[in-house]
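Cont'd.
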Amino acid sequence: MKRFVDLAQLPRDEVLALLELARRLESHPEPQALAGKILGLVFFNPSLRTLASCQTAMLRLGGGSFVINPGQGSWQLETRDGVVMDGAAAEHVREALPVLASYCDALGIRAFAAGRDLAHDLAETTFGTMAALIDKPLINLESAANHPCQALADWKTLDDLAVPRTARFVLSWAWHPRALPLAVPAAALHMAALRGMEVIVLRPEGFALPPAIMERARQAAAAAGGSIRETSERASALKGADVLYVKEWGATACYGDNAADARLRAPLTDWCVREDWFAAAAAGCRVMHCLPVRRNTAISDAVLDGPRSAVQLEARNRLPTQMAVLHQLLRTPP
Amino acid sequence: MKRFVDLAQLPRDEVLALLELARRLESHPEPQALAGKILGLVFFNPSLRTLASCQTAMLRLGGGSFVINPGQGSWQLETRDGVVMDGAAAEHVREALPVLASYCDALGIRAFAAGRDLAHDLAETTFGTMAALIDKPLINLESAANHPCQALADWKTLDDLAVPRTARFVLSWAWHPRALPLAVPAAALHMAALRGMEVIVLRPEGFALPPAIMERARQAAAAAGGSIRETSERASALKGADVLYVKEWGATACYGDNAADARLRAPLTDWCVREDWFAAAAAGCRVMHCLPVRRNTAISDAVLDGPRSAVQLEARNRLPTQMAVLHQLLRTPP
Amino acid sequence: MKRFVDLAQLPRDEVLALLELARRLESHPEPQALAGKILGLVFFNPSLRTLASCQTAMLRLGGGSFVINPGQGSWQLETRDGVVMDGAAAEHVREALPVLASYCDALGIRAFAAGRDLAHDLAETTFGTMAALIDKPLINLESAANHPCQALADWKTLDDLAVPRTARFVLSWAWHPRALPLAVPAAALHMAALRGMEVIVLRPEGFALPPAIMERARQAAAAAGGSIRETSERASALKGADVLYVKEWGATACYGDNAADARLRAPLTDWCVREDWFAAAAAGCRVMHCLPVRRNTAISDAVLDGPRSAVQLEARNRLPTQMAVLHQLLRTPP
């Protein structure tokens, strides 16, 4: 494995091997596995778990890291090609990224969706431009439409909770004050599809996931023996659900139009996950969320603090899975 | 010792042992004592000495650290319980902190007083909420009403300067353009009380330290054979003083009311410590301040640059005392 | 060597030894050379390469580092002496820097020119004030009128490209939306002079480098067998050029007057380096720039992406040269 940028680009065996490695590193630490190795981290957007788990993953394996926040202590970076750079950005990623890559052994990059042009974001134009500039192992720390590190931690969480491979996995939209990117819902959907689950996407009208994302997931589901369907009917979707994976995202019916998005979401504040959502769910149905989550906006206190919640386990699993990815990318065989 | 959050919570013997350990680490470095250990640092507020001394303390003992600044590169965090989170904060400490604690071996948190409600701040409501979420060794890097790391460094400074245990320690208010928290004056007062000193709190009318802080210090002083009194008379307070500990803080008579505080402090610009303050002090009376200090506002250039000043020694002592605290919390016996 | 603050302060032999050491560390890594050593980094201004190369240099040599950004997570710092500090700065460098120096083994400081008073900036008043406070090895990470780390990397780049010692080195002004400091043009000029090159400074009227900088470089050139001249005639300057070193800087004719500077530079947008600049240059003439560079503003895409460009090599050379400087300052002989 040279890059970890999209779970869909890896053979299923490699994903399973990463999960196996993550489990092994939990029980058998390798405090010198990456001695002398350096991970460069470039965050165009805020981070808590990704930042902390990447830095601690390197430390737990004997390596080190550095962090660049473009626009905060470092130059604001341009990502578009061919631009006359007379605006706010002092530097282009074409200069910045190959240099940073030359200093380290692997580079991780976070660059959220611009949220203006759906085709641009789905094509991963920005992340793809950057990835093409880097000749070192690369990790996608969340791009416009993907978050493979989160997806890997989510998969491990399902395994840790002994959720059967063929269980019913409901990916539900939840309310948020403004439009958020599609990266996590797309990644979670694909992960569940790859795992072979019975997947239901539950979202209000106007918030359907883009056809390209759905189609790609359908193919993965078909190959893994699972299924994908979508609905806006909450009761039917949640009936018999084994896992409710909650996520906020923007209206795809009017992508990039904040005013229209605000109008669409205004009446949807009841899409805050409360205990009564689970009336017809399977006994022991678990709730997942990648975090950060707004309490009593997307999910109620009672659900987050109750026994259904797997959000802590998901977040904690970011560390062993990040360690597995870095180990796989950087470990020099002895 | 599992937590270092308040000097008053530790038996006096443990405090003395930390001071002894700090001295030992100065003369006998242990560059591998914390090999493989990770300290997570969460700063809700700015820092210079605490940030740098924590990071270097881990490095000097063979460990590592990471830093999270909520709202600056990381999500803004909510600390209140039961809130509908539709404002600026994207995440709650209930989610964020247990996760960060799971990645590291000890967590340090800085969260200044909100400065609106005295009872809330004195009760350490915010820090207490966060501390209750963490099942790892925890260090208070300055909370609403406490700064035990500073207090420990101050104690070591008094020892290094051979200031007798029973010497006269004057804690004096000083001028500042706006209200500052009570954490350092409370911590310095308690430290001097625990040390058994003859403590005088010198402050203008309206700036008395809260009764709860005074009472707690009086009990510690009584147990250690020292004493506490307070006054607004500068000349009498400074007569025979062996140490002048200078600190700026907000008016407690109108806590949380910035306009009233500004009116109260406006005529007090002569509370800038100048050489003539020491006319009747003991020969060799030293000046202490936790830093940062505003020159010629709280303390004059002449005093800060003169032979009385112990501010550099105090600040330098942050490193060995921080090393002692971390060593005590994290060292696995061989 | 105790300090690396100005290439001109080092005997030529020491500069050559640093270049030799940089090459040796490229081919013969020393992953434990600085084990246990700590570099403190204080950035008053943004950084990408300097920040990342300093941190990775320490990691590659087995050491560690910490970063302080005054005003961003740390207190805003005052540098002027004798001031009544009732403004934005909470702390003075007289307190902050000796403390930070006490925590680490070497300190690096970046403090750009204030850009208001040419004499103040040329005298390195701010950096000099700070340097005088520090009793540890010190690295200038770019001061008002100097950037020795960049100059060393540039020199190594010329060596790596086998540019003859006596080749024709043209330092050219380029367009930028606003006035930038003189540090890099001054450092590049001096480096080429020290190397013994035939140096031509090409700049529009009003942008001549200050006489003090030119004179100091002329002396270095004379000692090294090279030469310095300046012109505003692009065609004659570039004729036979072996290297074009491009840099943006502010108008020295009206230093500190932003409106006058803007008027002077407004008609100069054709000072964007394009391929036609090289019509009469030597075959294989290389283009250098310290980065960050604004594409199609200072240098065109075609030039930056074409075979003349050495900007990546320059930036990559920041790592081995930074390692050499740190090794020289901090290595304890075995």
